[in-house]
Amino acid sequence: MIEVASGSVVAVVGHDGAPARVARRFYGVGYVPPGRRVFASLTVEENLAVGAYRARKDFGGIYARFPRLQERRAQRAGTLSGGEQQLLVIARALMGAPALLVLEDPSAGLAPPAVEAVARALRGLTVLIAEERLALASAAADRIVLVEGDRIVLDAPREQALADDRLDSAYVDVAKVRRA
């Protein structure tokens, strides 16, 4: 069982959907699926309101964490950059005031500056990231869990995990397979 301490970010990394299988089906959890699924014709603020369907609309708290979204609150979500759309999807999930936020492949297709913006937005939250790429995990996570198949092969604090050869070899092996 993977424990996620309050206010910490744990990244579950792996390939072929393994992290998603581990991370799914929580109660009281905000879930951000892969892809930037915004309501393109709605404004940023209308997208956020959709996320608050069961909770009090705390636009102030969300805008404090995501100031870029406050600047764009009247803009149609479909016109935002990819990174801004990803921030919007995360912010919308947070509008439901979840005890735990689960993100599945949140850095897919994002440029490095957008990945950094996502990492900054997650700090201080209780988060479980199911991610194939190591960039967000290494930028945001307090702890990294490496999943191979359906097995946890590494569970360590970020610095220790990043220095572990198993993490390096898992990503080198996948890079070789994808290039072939």
From TrEMBL:
Keyword terms, alphabetized: Amino-acid transport, ATP-binding, Nucleotide-binding, Transport
Single Gene Ontology MF annotation: ATP binding
Annotated organism of origin: Solirubrobacter phytolaccae
Coiled coil spans: none
Name this protein carries in UniProt: ATP-binding cassette domain-containing protein
Family: Belongs to the ABC transporter superfamily.
GO BP terms in the entry: L-amino acid transport
ABC transporter domain ranges (all copies): 23-107
Top-rank taxon: Bacteria
